[in-house]
């Protein structure tokens, strides 16, 4: 079997290489270059990543290539993120990076020559009813299926996730016992530029600053100023610079550049029970073709917990009605839907306003 491995130079994908070699495979290794050279938007960790990837390749005597997807990344992922932020939404570049770059462009350029592509994502594949489905990982804290929830059937059916059945600590132990040079490396906060650079610096560079009012929702009173709605997200607590809090961002008026906030952990305004999902994308297929309404579990952000609720189809639009209050439903983020047992990630779509 012909396998390619996406090797980042981190501990997870190094352990993938180790495990595959132990099983007798001789995979080809690929490092994807996505940062921008010569700007302060990329820190030097990319150089170290490549060095680490090279060390792993030497150690196992495997071929390693760098695949330059910088241009594609900036055209497809960064541009998407800036557009969403400008419109007052909260984008998720990691989701788009997986769909378009790691499994999109990479597949078209390189992956297509291989039977499978293996990565260090914490996820599994599940074979059911003659089809392949995206399954959740054993480690609930590391589970990354929410970041993979926009991939398609071709992608999921060609992917291997050798770490999906392991806890992160077990992966670290394997790396240490095997003496891998990457054993002690820190976890990255996602591949994307937003994990590597300062988010506010990035946004400022593209959208600048524009002062606006911060208004208390209940009273309509101005209680402060901000430097642009694009620096703030619904549900956000930190970074508002207001005293006497906690204050939460609960609404944004993009036209007027106004942020509405509400005080207190228990303010009813930061909670909601339901939301709409646009362009719902089924990864494998729609298992609920004949149901108008199904019991599901779901996530609206990257947390270990799954929420319970109902997925309701209304023509082209889907709606989720949650069994419990949801804090900070941020339009633009993805509503990710799982089966009732939180075993299979069925698909996702953007949370609408
Ligand atoms: N620059 C890259 N080049 C090739 N593959 C990558 C790159 N960045 C991430 N990947 C792949 O995507 C997987 C998940 O990436 P993520 O950024 O979430 O890192 P992680 O869980 O910390 O993994 P790692 O420890 O391998 O960096 C990695 O394990 C690797 O297979």
UniProtKB/TrEMBL annotation:
<dbReference type="GO" id="GO:0005737">
    <property type="term" value="C:cytoplasm"/>
</dbReference>
<feature type="active site" description="Nucleophile">
    <location>
        <position position="97"/>
    </location>
</feature>
<keyword id="KW-0819">tRNA processing</keyword>
<dbReference type="InterPro" id="IPR004506">
    <property type="entry name" value="MnmA-like"/>
</dbReference>
<dbReference type="GO" id="GO:0005524">
    <property type="term" value="F:ATP binding"/>
</dbReference>
<feature type="site" description="Interaction with tRNA">
    <location>
        <position position="333"/>
    </location>
</feature>
<feature type="binding site">
    <location>
        <position position="120"/>
    </location>
    <ligand>
        <name>ATP</name>
    </ligand>
</feature>
<feature type="domain" description="tRNA-specific 2-thiouridylase MnmA-like C-terminal">
    <location>
        <begin position="273"/>
        <end position="351"/>
    </location>
</feature>
<dbReference type="Pfam" id="PF03054">
    <property type="entry name" value="tRNA_Me_trans"/>
</dbReference>
<keyword id="KW-0547">Nucleotide-binding</keyword>
<feature type="active site" description="Cysteine persulfide intermediate">
    <location>
        <position position="192"/>
    </location>
</feature>
<dbReference type="InterPro" id="IPR051305">
    <property type="entry name" value="tRNA_2-thiouridylase_MnmA"/>
</dbReference>
<feature type="binding site">
    <location>
        <position position="32"/>
    </location>
    <ligand>
        <name>ATP</name>
    </ligand>
</feature>
<keyword id="KW-1015">Disulfide bond</keyword>
<dbReference type="GO" id="GO:0103016">
    <property type="term" value="F:tRNA-uridine 2-sulfurtransferase activity"/>
</dbReference>
<feature type="region of interest" description="Interaction with target base in tRNA">
    <location>
        <begin position="92"/>
        <end position="94"/>
    </location>
</feature>
<dbReference type="Pfam" id="PF20258">
    <property type="entry name" value="tRNA_Me_trans_C"/>
</dbReference>
<comment type="similarity">
    <text>Belongs to the MnmA/TRMU family.</text>
</comment>
<dbReference type="InterPro" id="IPR046885">
    <property type="entry name" value="MnmA-like_C"/>
</dbReference>
<comment type="function">
    <text>Catalyzes the 2-thiolation of uridine at the wobble position (U34) of tRNA, leading to the formation of s(2)U34.</text>
</comment>
<protein>
    <recommendedName>
        <fullName>tRNA-specific 2-thiouridylase MnmA</fullName>
        <ecNumber>2.8.1.13</ecNumber>
    </recommendedName>
</protein>
<dbReference type="Pfam" id="PF20259">
    <property type="entry name" value="tRNA_Me_trans_M"/>
</dbReference>
<dbReference type="InterPro" id="IPR014729">
    <property type="entry name" value="Rossmann-like_a/b/a_fold"/>
</dbReference>
<feature type="domain" description="tRNA-specific 2-thiouridylase MnmA-like central">
    <location>
        <begin position="200"/>
        <end position="263"/>
    </location>
</feature>
<keyword id="KW-0820">tRNA-binding</keyword>
<dbReference type="InterPro" id="IPR023382">
    <property type="entry name" value="MnmA-like_central_sf"/>
</dbReference>
<feature type="binding site">
    <location>
        <begin position="6"/>
        <end position="13"/>
    </location>
    <ligand>
        <name>ATP</name>
    </ligand>
</feature>
<dbReference type="GO" id="GO:0006400">
    <property type="term" value="P:tRNA modification"/>
</dbReference>
<feature type="site" description="Interaction with tRNA">
    <location>
        <position position="121"/>
    </location>
</feature>
<keyword id="KW-0808">Transferase</keyword>
<keyword id="KW-0067">ATP-binding</keyword>
<dbReference type="InterPro" id="IPR046884">
    <property type="entry name" value="MnmA-like_central"/>
</dbReference>
<keyword id="KW-0694">RNA-binding</keyword>
<dbReference type="GO" id="GO:0000049">
    <property type="term" value="F:tRNA binding"/>
</dbReference>
<keyword id="KW-0963">Cytoplasm</keyword>
<feature type="region of interest" description="Interaction with tRNA">
    <location>
        <begin position="142"/>
        <end position="144"/>
    </location>
</feature>
């Amino acid at each position: 079997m012909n396998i390619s491995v996406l090797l980042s130079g981190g501990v997870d994908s190094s352990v993938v290489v180790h495990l595959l070699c132990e099983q007798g495979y001789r995979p080809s290794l690929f490092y994807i270059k996505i940062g921008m050279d010569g700007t302060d938007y990329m820190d030097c960790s990319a150089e170290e990543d490549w060095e680490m990837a090279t060390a792993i390749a030497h150690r196992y005597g495997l071929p390693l290539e760098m695949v330059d997807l910088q241009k594609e990344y900036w055209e497809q992922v960064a541009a998407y993120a800036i557009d969403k932020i400008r419109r007052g939404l909260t984008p998720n570049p990691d989701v788009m990076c997986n769909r378009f770059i790691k499994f999109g462009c990479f597949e078209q350029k390189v992956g297509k020559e291989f039977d499978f592509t293996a990565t260090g994502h914490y996820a599994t594949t599940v074979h059911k009813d003659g089809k392949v489905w995206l399954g959740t990982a054993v480690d609930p804290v590391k589970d990354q299926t929410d970041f993979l929830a926009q991939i398609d059937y071709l992608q999921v059916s060609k992917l291997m996730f050798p770490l999906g059945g392991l806890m992160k600590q077990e992966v670290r132990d394997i790396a240490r016992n095997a003496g891998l040079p990457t054993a002690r490396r820190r976890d990255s906060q996602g591949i994307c530029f937003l994990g590597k650079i300062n988010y506010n610096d990035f946004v400022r560079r593209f959208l600048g600053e524009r002062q606006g009012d911060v208004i208390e929702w209940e009273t309509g009173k101005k209680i402060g100023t901000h430097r642009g709605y694009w620096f703030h997200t619904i549900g956000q607590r930190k970074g508002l610079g207001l005293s006497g809090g906690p204050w939460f961002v609960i609404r944004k008026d993009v036209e007027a550049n106004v942020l509405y906030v509400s005080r207190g952990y228990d303010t009813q305004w930061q909670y909601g029970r339901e939301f709409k999902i646009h362009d719902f994308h089924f990864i494998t297929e729609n298992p609920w073709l004949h149901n108008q309404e199904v019991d599901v579990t779901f996530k609206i952000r990257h947390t270990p917990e799954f929420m319970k609720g109902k997925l309701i189809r209304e023509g082209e639009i889907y709606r989720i009605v949650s069994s419990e209050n949801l804090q900070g439903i941020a339009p633009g983020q993805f509503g990710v839907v799982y089966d009732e047992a939180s075993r299979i990630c069925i698909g996702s779509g953007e949370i609408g306003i």
